[in-house]
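Supplementary Text 2. Reproducibility record for the structural model of the 425-residue chain.

All settings were left at their defaults, and a single model was retained for analysis rather than an ensemble. We include the record here because the model underlies the residue-level annotations in Supplementary Table 4.
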Amino acid sequence: MSTLRNVLILSYYFPPMGLGGVQRVQKFVKYLPLFGWRPIVVTVKDVAYYGRDESLLRELPPEALVYRTGSYDPLRVAHRMGVQAGEGKTGNGVRKLAKWLLFPDNQTLWVPFAVQCAKNIIREHKIDALFSTFPPGSAHLAGYMVHRSSGIPWVVDYRDSWLDGEFSRPASNIHYAMLKILNHKFTRRANHVTAVTSHIAGQLSDLRGDNGDTTVISNGYDPEDFQGLDEPPPDDRFTLTYCGTLNEARHPGPLLESIRHLLDQYPEMSDHLHIKLVGASIDLDVDGLIDYYRLPNVVTRLGYLPHREALAHLAASDAVLLLVTSEPSRASGVPTGKFYECAATGRPVLAIATDGSGLAWLKKTGRGFIVSPRDTGGISNVIGSWIRQHAEGVLPAYGVTDTEAFSRPNLTGQLARILDHVSNT
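Retained model, structure tokens:
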């Protein structure tokens, strides 16, 4: 076997942290050795975070090296103080204050540790390429500093839009202007830029002033994750499952209101419907919403589960749910990472999504329905028709062959070719 080349990866979010944003870089690390690259990861030590999934660590290949550094950022400090990230509405005031005081984001106090660790690694290993992934922007700041001091070719990755993404809320106009300057500096300095959607890639190409070295590498799914799942017991009811974080941008309110509307019209359907909500809730009282709409016998909230346990619930469902409830101006090109795992189940998809959300593939393939969060009647009509089809045994199912382009090995191959290119030029 030929000698692997080394790519140094700067990623604040990394296993055993959970939630969807971790999986992109974790899957890159898993599959890069197949394409001739050894991943060497610089990340942070344990922090107070909403999801923890030790099982993701077992997927890391033996070739990978992971260095965990200290940090004085709020999440690391909270962990050191014994504070655990909980669910519901907590810590809003602290987060708002931190956004004002810490630039470019709350993780900026990780940067000195990450940069020093990276420099030590460079002295110990021959590094052929450098890769940093946003969010947080501090990962790119660390990447920029390492790139400038070492000259190692640098690939910057955007899992979201920095300035107008769903969760981008600069503390002031001054913060926004300064972030714009940084974003411009990083994208123009980088040897190559990758982004999860064409919308974000287009924004970054405009910043770079060219179109030749900005590449879309979408989110995706790992076929191995669906092998040997320990699925829950069968349920005679029609089961619709949502898998992912619940927050203001992924709000279950339109779903719950629509179900209440449906059951008020057809009370008998309550015995034939089961909704599962799998995932952490952040700044939302989901249990309170379920009680408000009088749905405790229909809706089960399972909370955060390890990735494969969550997928088992998804795969055992009759249909799957996506939520994109952010304001339309921020929903354009949303990198709905869970969509690809939903598609890989072969189940029909209900996307409760605002206009402009990045669901072109669902529209193209006709594997389900996209309904506005404001269209209570439309949502209840889809669910009601699926309950009837399920009872008649005619609910549609789909193959997975047309999802292979979104498999994690294929997507990692795209990244590997970019690393090959930048390291050889």
